[in-house]
Amino acid sequence: MGEIFAGRYELIDPIGRGGVGMVWRAWDHRRRRYVAAKVLQQSDAHTLLRFVREQALRIDHPHVLAPASWAADDEKVLFTMDLVRGGSLAHLIGDYGPLPPTLVCTLLDQLLSGLAAVHAEDVVHRDIKPANLLLEPTGTGRPHLRLSDFGISMRKDEPRLTETNYVVGTPGYFAPEQMLEAEADFPSDLYAVGLVGLYMLTGRKPDSQELVEQYLNGLPAAPEGVPEPLWQVLGQLLQPDPAARFRTATGTRKALASAAELLDRDATLEQETVEVFDHIGPLPEGFGPDGPLRTTATTADSAATGPAATAGPAPAGSAVAASAPAAESTPVADPAPAGRHTAGPAQAAGGAALAPQPPATGSFPLQPPAPPLNGSGETQAHPYAPDAGDGTRPYTAYQPPGPAPAPGAGQGPVASPLAAAPPTAHAAPTAHAAPTAPPARARKPGPPLKIVVPVLVVALVCLAAGVWALSVAG
């Protein structure tokens, strides 16, 4: 399994590299979803300040991929964002070359929509390029572009992080004024948008220095493969003079929508269909669509492991091992409380009858009662005796005992009158009731008289003193 960062983010596998660190596919154990985590590689003050600026940006827009949360663990820090799986615009151009003009219009419109939200927060991106424009894996359907990587972005009122004579950004996508060390502004981002649009239509990375030279005599002709309506928009975005460009991303979107209506739809349909597929790849072993598989395995093991499983295997030949199935647990009856007589012989788990045990009544066992005798001294048949084996049980009426024989007459053992008494309907013949203690005398409620009388006297004295005080006050 991957390394767990700050007790929440489990780093799975690297999926890319950003301006200040490595980007990992990670599992968020709190939100229960996969995210992209950028781990800071350096820890110097300059890099940390850039990191803080990037993670502090919070823009909720469908075409902006801004940081969602951050965490720190020892000397490492990271921030997370949505996991976008369709690769970048650079990958798409590398796979298909020049893109159809209608697709380019759609992608540029989404880019400008996200850029308008960024500019509304008074933030200049300063690093717009195909590698920072990520795509959702939409297949052959409508694409979904997201502007990412705000590592060198800055608010217009914040101080610069770079030294003099040092330009921040990606070579080839600098605006001319940035090369002259001017402060980057919204038109600088729009110039980079024009370069990206030209790259999508031609399939070749444009040379910004060569473009500046072409504008010495005004707007040059449309490059090969660029429709004239789109060149009217891109050509104005690529003006060397910032004042000659579109001023806002929203204004550029309006001009782009008008140009898209003038495109030749038939020529566009003849071009190759573009598919945006998954570029990240399958999850490594140990992970599934719902997260790490060990969570599911632990749950299954806990459900299968019960008291019977933890007790260990039963000895070979034991009654429990012979009678209880392996996948089921046999409920065990509670032991009979002390002093209670259980009817019938005890049965072992294997079905063999055990020897009858005397009922436990106190600290010593009682002897079983003697059978009743009739008048002639013979044993009298018990009215609850078992049947004779033929399905019937003879009924024997109760015979009162006769006069006691004289001692030494040889009539056999003399039975106790308690043993000769017939069984009643309130108790079983073999049951023996324990002696009960006499009921305690009921006590009358209330306190005793030796407490009640003094209290009443004190109350009467207080009442009298109160009446006297009221009469005096009146």
UniProtKB/TrEMBL annotation:
Q: Where is this region: Disordered?
A: 303-443
Q: Where are the transmembrane segments?
A: 451-471
Which CDD domains does this entry report, sorted A to Z?
STKc_PknB_like
Q: Which Pfam families match?
A: Pkinase
Please state every residue range assigned to the domain named Protein kinase: 9-263
State the UniProt keywords alphabetically.
ATP-binding, Kinase, Membrane, Nucleotide-binding, Serine/threonine-protein kinase, Transferase, Transmembrane, Transmembrane helix
Low complexity: bias regions:
303-333, 342-355, 412-435
MF-aspect GO terms? protein serine/threonine kinase activity
Enzyme Commission identifier(s): 2.7.11.1
Question: What protein is this chain from?
Answer: non-specific serine/threonine protein kinase
